[in-house]
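User: Let's play a game. I give you a shape written as tokens, and you guess the letters that built it. Ready? Here's round one.
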């Protein structure tokens, strides 16, 4: 149950952060915080990661729904297994993030991105949201869990 709760928490927190960005930030404007290490934006991403597929929103939505369904099935199947806490955590992170971004794509036709890390190499040119971060972290944890023996819960 805690893994489903984690997925729900990610969806809920990101939902409210996206709502805040949509209501209180100007589109395309950024404001720097914490010694210019964090920038908050309001950006409407009509594509996938790094705006890939921006010209084909129907394809991005279809892939998003498909990957959400696959992640949900894997998550449900994994929940019944004893152990595998790293895998369950990774899938919960991916599921919560995928649900949030897919919800945006289906209801708004774009994903609200609001966060940039200007001082972090490789990330300093990407505007993302909590869901994107959770999907990436969840994918990393899922890959790391592959080949591991059963671990105690």
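Assistant: Ready! My guess for every position:
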């Amino acid at each position: 149950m805690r893994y489903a709760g984690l997925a729900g928490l990610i969806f809920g927190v990101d939902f409210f952060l996206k709502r805040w960005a949509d209501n209180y930030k100007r589109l395309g404007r950024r404001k720097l915080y914490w010694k210019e290490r964090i920038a908050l934006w309001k950006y409407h991403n009509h594509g996938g990661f790094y705006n890939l597929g921006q010209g084909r929103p129907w394809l991005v939505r279809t892939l998003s729904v498909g990957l959400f369904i696959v992640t949900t099935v894997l998550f449900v199947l994994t929940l019944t297994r004893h152990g595998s806490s790293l895998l369950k955590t990774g899938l919960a992170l991916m599921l919560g993030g995928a649900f949030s971004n897919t919800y945006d794509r289906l209801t708004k036709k774009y994903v609200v991105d609001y966060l940039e890390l200007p001082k972090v190499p490789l990330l300093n040119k990407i505007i993302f949201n909590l869901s994107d971060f959770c999907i990436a972290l969840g994918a990393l944890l899922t890959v790391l869990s592959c080949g591991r023996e059963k671990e105690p819960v």
